[in-house]
């Protein structure tokens, strides 16, 4: 079990993360309801976009950042076997995230910052919204610094030893976030804030979008890191097996670190300010980021097969029946992989310069990122919380039947929600629309899909509520002695991991270098192109 100070720190991060998640979930369901034929139109589209901004900001910035931070602080003690260095700084980072969340959400609630979580210049919201986002990011940077400091202290105390996989992966996620958040930080500090503060009346919207694309896609892999850490370091141990390959796991996290950054312009395929050559380059690198995902699928499936065979399974496929399907982590893994498969297949369409024309800014995009983040990633957030909770509370969390129900509700709800979005996206149904006129004969056939997605949202809402209840019940369970927490052990521990797989110097250099190559030209070109600023549109 974690020591008491660190336990309180991790619990504080997790509880705030999951409460923000549930509130954002409620907002998302309300949005689907008021857009559906089941409800009379509210009459004011600004209320809808106000809700979308709050939903996206909480889900995109606050929720995954707090999960990554809390999980990271737990990993320091559980994997490195040392007390967290910088506990007071960790609480400072947490306070900055809390302060930033409140600072950003108040103007959103007042209708002063309905710019969605992607900011969408030339729309300009309240200066306090952007300052709030900056505070959240700065709070997360405190976490990044502490992860680096704690790893360095461990290395000094254990010269020449292999960094535990969980900490290696955790720091890969921290370094990725530190670098990818720079894009949005530059956009806010140098392009948006001068306008929001009243010092300027124009903004280079094209340049701002390029800087945000620096963050826009790599942030997904920051969201993904805790889920992938759970894949590699929690699931094999939880189901009674072993990790197929420690080295392959490290290569996967390294590839995410290197290839997650120089790909964001594929979100700007329809933007005229970026040339086709740069778009092609980013499309190629976007294809490269599928490699660590495929490597992960292979490694984890092999690890699961090991568990099945250790439990007496034989033959080519009979071992599948011997897996511990009643274990919530086993179920979460299987459901996550199914959603990852569907979402990843959709991502192949998004990354194609030609095919993107067919689905750009349609509900296909909404379905894709909800299936990846809300589906494959969030369900593993649930699983890692279930796995850690007894070690955070010192009490039993022995409600496996309820956990399985909660996970199934989330999976079914997410599939019901997102698959219709993919279909109507192919038909051309636009996203970010506050209202659909179902009396129009061209739109009337789509009304059923909106009702279906609303029904899926109800299942997600029920799953989210059950999840919070299970965690709350975990604080009321019987006190129990716990064995030392352990992460998954590899099948064959290497005598010595190659230095390239035990450090980050080379990979950070590649990450930065590829980012400069892929973004340097379009940014320099836009900065040096005169008369590109347009009048800002303030949100009143």
Automatic annotation (TrEMBL):
Pfam families: COX1. Residues 1-472 form the Cytochrome oxidase subunit I profile domain. Keywords: Electron transport, Membrane, Respiratory chain, Transmembrane, Transmembrane helix, Transport. It comes from the Bacteria. PROSITE patterns: COX1. The chain crosses the membrane at residues 52-76, 88-108, 128-153, 174-199, 211-235, 247-269, 281-308, 329-349, 369-386, 407-426, 446-472, 493-517. This is Cytochrome C oxidase subunit I. It comes from Duganella margarita. The lineage of its organism: Bacteria, Pseudomonadati, Pseudomonadota, Betaproteobacteria, Burkholderiales.
């Amino acid at each position: 079990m974690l020591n008491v100070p660190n336990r309180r720190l991790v619990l504080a991060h997790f509880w705030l993360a999951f409460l923000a998640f549930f509130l954002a979930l409620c907002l998302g369901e309300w949005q689907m309801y008021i857009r559906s034929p089941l409800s009379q139109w509210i009459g004011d589209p600004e209320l809808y976009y106000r809700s979308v901004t709050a939903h996206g900001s909480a889900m995109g910035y606050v929720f995954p950042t707090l999960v990554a931070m809390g999980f990271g602080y737990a990993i320091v003690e559980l994997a490195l076997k040392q007390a967290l260095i910088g506990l007071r700084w960790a609480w400072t980072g947490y306070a900055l995230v809390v302060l930033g969340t409140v600072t950003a959400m108040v103007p959103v609630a007042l209708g002063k910052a309905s710019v969605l979580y992607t900011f969408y210049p030339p729309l300009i919201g309240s200066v306090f919204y952007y300052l709030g986002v900056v505070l959240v990011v700065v709070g997360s940077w405190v976490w990044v610094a502490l992860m680096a400091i704690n790893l360095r202290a461990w290395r000094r105390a254990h010269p020449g030893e292999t960094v535990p996989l969980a900490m290696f992966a955790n720091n890969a996620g921290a370094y990725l976030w530190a670098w990818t958040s720079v894009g949005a930080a530059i956009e806010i500090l140098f392009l948006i804030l001068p306008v929001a503060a009243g010092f300027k009346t124009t903004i280079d919207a094209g340049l701002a979008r390029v800087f945000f694309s620096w963050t826009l896609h790599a942030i997904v892999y920051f969201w993904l890191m805790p889920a992938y850490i759970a894949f590699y370091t929690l699931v094999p141990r939880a189901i009674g097996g072993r990790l197929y390959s420690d080295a392959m796991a490290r290569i996967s996290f390294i590839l995410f670190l290197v290839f997650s950054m120089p790909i964001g312009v594929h979100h700007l395929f329809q933007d005229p300010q970026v040339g086709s050559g740069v778009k092609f380059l980013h499309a190629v690198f976007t294809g490269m980021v599928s490699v660590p995902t495929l490597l992960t699928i292979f490694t984890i499936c092999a690890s699961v097969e090991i568990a099945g065979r250790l439990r007496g399974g034989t033959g080519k496929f009979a071992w599948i029946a011997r897996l511990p399907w009643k274990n919530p982590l086993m179920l979460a893994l299987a459901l996550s992989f199914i959603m990852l498969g569907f979402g990843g297949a959709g991502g192949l369409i998004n990354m194609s310069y030609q095919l993107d024309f067919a689905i750009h800014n349609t509900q296909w995009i909404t379905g894709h990122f909800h299936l990846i983040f809300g589906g494959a990633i969030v369900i593993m957030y649930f699983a890692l919380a279930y796995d850690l909770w007894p070690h955070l509370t010192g009490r039993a969390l022995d409600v496996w039947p309820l956990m399985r129900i909660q996970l199934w509700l989330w999976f079914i709800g997410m599939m019901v929600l997102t698959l219709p979005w993919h279909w109507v996206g192919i038909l051309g149904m636009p996203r970010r629309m506050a209202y659909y006129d179902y009396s129009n004969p061209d739109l009337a056939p789509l009304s059923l899909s909106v009702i279906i997605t609303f029904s899926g949202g109800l299942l997600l809402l029920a799953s989210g509520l059950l999840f919070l209840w299970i965690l709350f019940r975990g604080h009321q369970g019987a006190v129990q002695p716990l064995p030392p927490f352990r992460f998954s052990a590899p099948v064959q521990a290497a005598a010595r991991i190659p230095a390239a797989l035990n450090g980050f110097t080379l990979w950070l250099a590649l990450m930065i270098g590829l980012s400069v190559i892929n973004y340097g030209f379009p940014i320099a070109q836009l900065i040096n192109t005169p008369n590109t600023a347009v009048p800002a549109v303030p949100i009143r």
